[in-house]
Specification:
It catalyses: [(1->4)-alpha-D-glucosyl](n) + ADP-alpha-D-glucose = [(1->4)-alpha-D-glucosyl](n+1) + ADP + H(+). The chain is an alpha/beta fold. Helices cover 38% and strands 19% of the residues. The two termini are 17 Å apart.
Length: 483
């Protein structure tokens, strides 16, 4: 008999996405279906999500007062799988992004918006909504973190489902002042160190980690890293106390969306046997980013422009990159001062540095298909998906040795090159010297066409589909139910 899982998240591709969380949540239903797991995805009713629902049909449930606003439960589909949407106009019918206004400022009531979302998810998973019953509630990141806490402290039914809390990035925790607790509809006993209380306030991710039956992160290395103060962001003590319930499962990629041989975004499709066709895509990247044509390597960046991603170090390293005859194509947005730094670099090195601020899904595919290497100098990276896309597309990853980057890229040292298993370049510590050294190694390897193609083909042969990861999630769910 199939297991029934409610996957609760604030975003899911293709309906709403701000980063890797959306890609992962969007891919889970198809990844788990072959393993006897039926996944229903539960999303907030943002305007784009509601617009994608098919018209017709009565709401499955109504909440006259869901932490201060009326709401209803709607049903639809996402990529052929079941979707439930919390339609609460008072919380989600807004212009802007999922978490902030058009100017990028966080909504002041995010604490209430996502508490209501979590409360509704707990109701749905726990049997309080007619016709809905689930074996497991799987919560993703802080926006869903209160759902396991609601099931623990204010359960809608005595036979509440098992719960899993996945940390996609522990740096984002949903921390709020203690004054909001009275509005969360939780019993007083929940405001305790083994509940939702966190350094005198309320911690949404902390609540999920404390209350869930199992905790997962998105790579084995990150699961170890977050046990230390350098990576645990204040939660390392709690995670250490629950270490036996913590596991790291590397994210997969949706090979139906990310496949260079079938990608509709590309001027030229190709596979590992037809790598010469990438030259057409390289010319398209040059044109899109106003780069001078040439045979030298193009390094691309597809990233949030933040300190975590090491973008400050990359900005400093651009002159050295250009000096080695390489070019840079950057797509991303983030901190204003970093955006300006890359604009300045494009003006200083016209034809050698191209910058597109913002995000464009099709352009991100083109960059992977036409660039020679992708730079990912993250100071910490729970899993990372762009390096996996790079591997699949023959765009050689140049990455910091941390988190999922360390788990998924095989460094091109002498032994790995001799064995034909090297898939990219890793470097220790995110400093100017280490990044410039990695760029130098990449340009030297690129100059040897035969060896570079060997690295590309080894990366393209790696299996980073959801097959293995989906099996591990299914096993975790069954272990929880058996326990």
């Amino acid at each position: 008999m199939a297991l029934s899982v409610l996957s609760v998240a604030s975003e899911a591709y293709p309906l709403v996405k701000t980063g890797g969380l959306g890609d992962v949540v969007g891919a889970l239903p198809a990844a788990l279906a072959p393993h006897g797991v039926d996944v229903t995805t539960f999303l907030p009713g943002y305007p784009r999500v509601l617009a994608a629902l098919e018209a017709g049909g009565a709401p499955l449930h109504r909440w006259p007062d869901l932490l201060g606003a009326p709401a209803q439960l709607l049903e639809g589909e996402i990529a052929g799988h079941r979707l439930l949407v919390l339609d609460a106009p008072g919380y989600f019918a807004r212009e802007g992004g999922p978490y902030g206004d058009p100017a990028g400022r966080d909504w002041d009531d995010n604490w209430r918006r996502f508490a209501a979302f979590a409360r509704a998810a707990a109701d749905v998973a726990g049997g309080a909504v007619a016709g809905e019953r689930y074996d497991v509630l799987h919560a993703h990141d802080w926006q869903s973190g209160l759902a396991p806490a609601y099931l623990r402290f204010a359960p809608p039914a005595p036979d509440a489902p098992r719960t899993v809390m996945t940390i996609h990035n522990i740096a984002f925790q949903g921390r709020y002042d203690a004054g909001i607790f009275a509005s969360l509809a939780l019993p007083a006993l929940a405001f305790a160190v083994d509940g939702v209380e966190y350094y005198g306030g309320v911690g949404y991710l902390k609540a999920g980690l404390e209350s869930a039956d199992a905790i997962t992160t998105v790579s084995p290395t990150y699961a170890r890293e977050i046990l230390s103060p350098d990576f645990g962001m204040g939660l390392e003590g709690l995670i250490r106390t629950r270490q036996r319930r913590v596991s790291g499962i590397v994210n997969g990629i949706d090979t139906a969306v990310w496949s260079p041989s079938a990608d509709p975004s590309l001027p030229a499709r190709y596979d590992a046997a037809t790598l010469t066709r990438r030259a057409t895509n390289k010319r398209a990247v040059e044109q899109a980013f106003d780069l001078d044509p040439g045979d030298g390597p193009i390094f691309c960046v597809v990233s949030r422009l933040t300190w975590q991603k090491g973008m400050d170090v990359l900005a400093d390293a651009i002159p050295a990159l250009v000096e080695r005859g390489a070019r840079l194509a950057l797509l991303g947005s983030g901190d204003a001062w970093l955006e300006q730094a890359f604009r300045d670099a494009a003006e200083r090195f016209p034809g050698q540095v191209g910058v597109r601020l913002g995000y464009d899904e099709a352009l991100s595919h083109l960059l992977q298909a036409g660039s020679d290497a992708i730079l990912i100098p993250s100071r910490f990276e729970p899993c990372g998906l762009t390096q996996l896309y790079g591997l699949a597309y023959g765009c050689v990853p140049v990455v910091a040795r941390t988190g999922g980057l360390a788990d998924t890229v095989i460094h091109a040292n002498a032994a790995a090159l001799a064995a034909g298993v090297a898939t990219g370049i890793q470097f220790d510590t995110v400093t100017y010297e280490s990044l410039v050294g990695a760029i130098a190694l990449a340009t030297d390897l690129h100059a040897d066409a035969e060896r570079w193609e060997q690295i590309q083909r080894a990366g393209m042969a790696a299996d980073f589909s959801w097959a293995t990861s989906g099996r591990r999630y299914a096993s975790l769910y069954r272990e929880l139910l058996a326990a």
